[in-house]
Amino acid sequence: MTIDETAWDVLRTRLEAGLKDMSISPEAALCDRLLHYLRLLERWNRVYNLTAVKGPEQWLVLHLFDCLAAIKHMTGPRVIDVGTGAGLPGLILAMLRPQWQVVMLDRSRRKVCFVEQAIAMLGLTNALAEHCRVEDYSDRVGFDLIISRAFTQAEPFLSKTAHLAHADTCWMLMKGQRPDDEMEALAAQSWASALIALQVPALDAERHLLIIRAAEKG
Questions:
Q1: What is the CATH number of the domain that holds 97?
Q2: How far apart, in whole angstroms, are the C-alpha atoms of residue 167 and residue 214?
Q3: What are phi and psi of 65, to 5 degrees?
Q4: Of 104, 125, 171, 175, whose CB is crowded by the most CB atoms within 10 A?
Q5: pTM listed for this prediction
């Protein structure tokens, strides 16, 4: 069931308010792109079941706002989003940081097809989608940022993406509750980690960004 244009107008108002709450300028072009993404997701999700979250009203908060709240903490310019699913956070990052290059990986062919279509329809020249397991993906330079919403634990995330890093790579995991046990385990393995509590508009739940770097030697 599709939503009518009045409902989309309400979503736009909510989107603009949420952007302001996150100190992101609600420029018309950006709002147009973000809403276009939601329209594409609505169309494709009916057939391809891209996300278990139901409906544009929930996608606005649980997908768009959730990713947008973390954007200001992300570093570039070469970024890889591992297990991107419906292009989250990769597509959102590519929209807000047009000068960066964003690669999005996923093992699901149907999800990658959606992301490829979204890249084309949104006119994103700085984004690339790849149907690939992260273990099989190669890059000769290494990425400045390796990020994921799909991985639930830091240890497998780090081990499976180590071949995509360089000396100054930053890893980021988007989490719900505080991962204190994981941070203790990372410290024991000589990783440096930091945790940022995210404020997601209209969401009454914990959200955190776990930032991981190789510990400095000496």
A1: 3.40.50.150
A2: 8
A3: -60, -40
A4: 104
A5: 0.95
Phi, psi of 8 (to 5 degrees): -65, -35
Specify whether the CB–CB gap between 125 and 97 falls below 8 A: no
Paired strand residues for 80: 103, 146
Task: Encode the chain (218 residues) as per-residue pLDDT tens digits.
Answer: 467 888 899 999 999 999 999 999 999 999 999 999 999 999 998 888 888 778 889 999 999 999 999 999 999 999 999 999 999 999 999 999 999 999 999 999 999 999 999 999 999 999 999 999 999 999 999 999 999 999 999 999 999 999 999 999 999 999 999 999 999 999 999 999 999 999 999 999 999 999 999 987 54
Q: How many CB atoms are closer than 10 A to CB 132? A: 14
Dist CA 60 CA 38 (whole Å): 8
Per the structure, the count of domains in the chain is 1
Angle at which helix 109-122 crosses helix 28-48, to 10 degrees, equals: 150
For residues 189 and 215, what is the distance between their CA atoms, to the nearest angstrom? 9
Q: Residues, the chain, total?
A: 218
